[in-house]
User: Fold these one by one.
Assistant:
Number 1:
Amino acid sequence: MASAIPSHGLQGPFRVAKRITGWYLIVAVLFVMLGMFAIIEPGVAGLGVTLLVSWLLILGGIVHLVGAFKVAGARQVIFQLLIGIAYVIGGLYLRAHLLLAIGALTLLLAAVIWAEGVFEIISYFRLKDEDASGWVLFNGIVTLLLGALIWFHWPSSSVWAIGILVGVNLLMTGMTRLMFGLAARTVIKRAVG
């Protein structure tokens, strides 16, 4: 027997979509809260990022060590073993010397941000005939200045740079996901009618 309401048979998928967007909104709020915490406590956030990097190196090393015995050829095995050992030693060294690791990660971050600014400015000269190319130049200059600010204030920038930048990233990611989730909820409500 056919339903008189065309969307009646679709109530199951809408219910599932509503549940999924609910979880999506919860995760978005958690991102916003973590971002605010990282901005308020940038030193703790920087320490957390450094610990995360050290654990990722250790786990990556373990994966290489395990994977070494699944490759063919003595050279491949030796190469994978050496990479795995280097990763594990690097991760353990970062964990043992957290302040040095935060400083090194801050310098690396400054160099990457500065390089991004340079590439944005180069992109501007390739796109300067386009309508919004001024924004590319503006972004490049601001990014270049941010990288220089972190670099020239090093090592004191180690206290705030990683935490603030990770915090802003988490906050913006959370806000965009929150807006996207709310928009999806609106679409679902309209579809269910």
Number 2:
Amino acid sequence: MKREIPLSRAHRIVNHGPVVLVTTQGKSGRPNVLAVAWITPVSQSPPLVAISVADGHYSHRLISEGGEFVVNVPSYTMASQVMVCGKISGRDVDKFEKAQLTPVPAKEVSPPLIEECIGHLECRLDQEVKVGDHTLFIGRVLKAWAEKDLFEETWRVDVKCGEALHHLGGNVFAVSREMVVVEE
């Protein structure tokens, strides 16, 4: 038996991929951090990733202004830091300081990496697509970094090693700890 889900919560049926911390930097030069649960790869060649950011968010302006962003993948141990970055605005607060995160210079873009995260994608803005009350920022991945033990030899994420954080809504998260292999 199925039950109807309110349309305002329909996204939660498919939105349990890893939550990420997106770093931005506008013309002011001060970097900011935004928690983003709506993220997806959209192309392998060229490598493109899309993030969906609400129009009124401070980071929305910074991404448009700066034309660059970094996708940082936190581990489950960073759940409280993710909540800080998702609950407060960086307009008046230094979220790096408030969430006790360490900015590290990126190689190809101005926004920094977050040292505590397990993976990073340095992105240059390729397209902005207005979608409802959000903008889909599509970034070309220029550099990719990950903890050395995060990937298996097949370049597949080892879920037992990375234990990425998956947002289920509000202050509820899940962690993947097991792989399921289907015999062909």
Number 3:
Amino acid sequence: MSKREVREEALRARRTLTSDEVRVLSEKVRENLLSLPEFKTAKVIASYVAKKDEVQTTDILKLALASGKRVIVPRSDVSSGTLRFHEISSLDGLRPGTFGILEPSADSQYVPLGDSDIVLVPLVAWDFRGHRVGYGKGYFDRELKSRGEALCVGLAFEVQVQDSVPSTPTDVPMDVIVTDRRVLRFSRSGA
């Protein structure tokens, strides 16, 4: 299947989940994420801010902030097709931005992604090799190349798994995928 077909199939599967199922499954993903030693020791967490049918990150962000971790979330720049991560001290200052996703204000402090210890990445589809398909615009893949030693952790529901996800040299595989059922670890190369 092509990336487009994989994306469409995974999004169809995800859209079958009710809002209550998304909430309950997101809680399970959060529990699995919080069990990671790398999350416990991370000083700087980079994370997406979830759309309504994605693995929800609100509680993860609040817990990270409450435990004294620095939290950075992305602002999208459509003209350049890039993400820039900005530090937040609470979720109160987030406002709808590009694609209707909550973003920090433009005057919030920019923090290079390479300063983070762990990066939480939204997955549309994923496979057992650590490959992912996003929404198709490449925003995360372009920015993940600057992550340095930060651990890339994809968050997804089990219903989004595919037998195989097509990948290209510009795609960045995940180091870890956390779902509502499991934690999967991969080598840095994604093999």
Number 4:
Amino acid sequence: MAMSGAGEEFLCARCARYMRTCCQDSEVYASPADVRRIEAHTGQTDFYEYRVPTDPIYYQQDDDPIWPTLVFQPDGTRRVLKRELDGSCTFLGERGCVLPLDIRPLICRIYPYDFNEGGIKEELCNGCPTEILRPGQTLVQALVLNREEAEAWRKQLYLDIREEVNEHPSHQPQ
């Protein structure tokens, strides 16, 4: 539910009625810059934690070897937004994310575009139920996704994750 535009709320609300959403099932990585933005906006400092992923998909980054090298700490943990007991992101409200788009983690803004260090991929991530789209409508149209904006956020994300090395000197890329 990280997308911008007028269509997001309607489609994401329909998605929430249809199934558990990305905001309820995903382990959302937060970069150092994401943390600073959210702290400045909310005044909170206890919204993230370092945790080992529960889903092995977060380790499978065959086409992007720099990602786990920079995101994961030596103990196998990574910084993620805390989740409620039901698995929902702590920032998930009744109408979607309570954080303004420009405050949300970059990962959330990019989703459902799939990406690696080289760029935004042609195929979208699996997860959004495309069967709830209107006939002839694509997910990109329904969510009012902007590929150029997603690419800019992806570039910023890779700049941000490199801060992990500066925060944890023992966490050096190969």
